Amino acid sequence: MAGLEMFDAPEFIEESIQQMKATIDDVAIIACSGGVDSTVAAVIANKAVGNLLHCVYVDTGFMRKNETEEIEAMLAEQGINLITVKAADRYFEALKGVTEPEHKRKVIGELFIRIFEDEQKKCGAKYLVQGTIAPDWIESGGGVRDTIKSHHNVGGLPEDMTLEVVEPLRELYKDEVREIARELNIVVAERQPFPGPGLAVRTLGELTPERVEVVREACAIVEEEFEAGAAAGEMELPWQYFAALLPVRSVGVHGDVRAYGETVVVRAVRSMDGMSARYSEIPHSILQKISTRITNTVKGAVNRVVYDITHKPPGTIEWE
User: What residue numbers bound the domain in which 288 lies?
Assistant: First the structure.
């Protein structure tokens, strides 16, 4: 990867716009999750082909707290016409009984494309623009590379897909994409990474609306407390930080009542590009607030909160 001093964001933006103008000669569709990668790809595509671009946001049921409303407002501010597809019921139905992480990603990836094929029929799209970046296809394996985890926009694409894929950010790393986002004045330029499959990969084991809601609340608490701690000068804000729900039950106590609940793990790392990472050293006072808030908010469902001190490698950033 070229260093930041060698990367020219304005030049890349202009070249990408010209390449997309030369490539896309018909209607294109893009999935925009509101994350920095897909948003940068959407803004560049919108500049390149304008009305030919149909931007679709899929509410899978695995998004973070209040995320759908925030994404809709942010993309409207960018002048992008957005279609929101409510698909939570379809995703939970398709993922019934699926617990293995790679299987989850495959199911999510295929349904992702099927939904887009439905939208394609409505708008007649020929092209699928994606915000795929280098770590996505590197970690998804292929050739001599081992599969670390299949990204929904790489390993989950079905073989019979009819859309032609356009990936303007394919050779870039996260730090370079953020630089482009700053150049484009995109408000999510500094937003922490969020996996394409969303909270589905942070809910280990069975996916149910109830278990995903636990993760949604826990992630919101982690984000709020870390960001408050950073704003108060108590800590450095990590590169990525979240909570995951483990399918591990143990005996606990709520008041004087025995509780048999699951375990939430808090994860926070420092990284540049996501290819490697060091766990963040978080003040115990902040971890204590997080633990108390999580166990009080989801009483009965969670009775233990732990902190992950694993680097990448050997672990991955997300829990799967």
Answer: 202-307
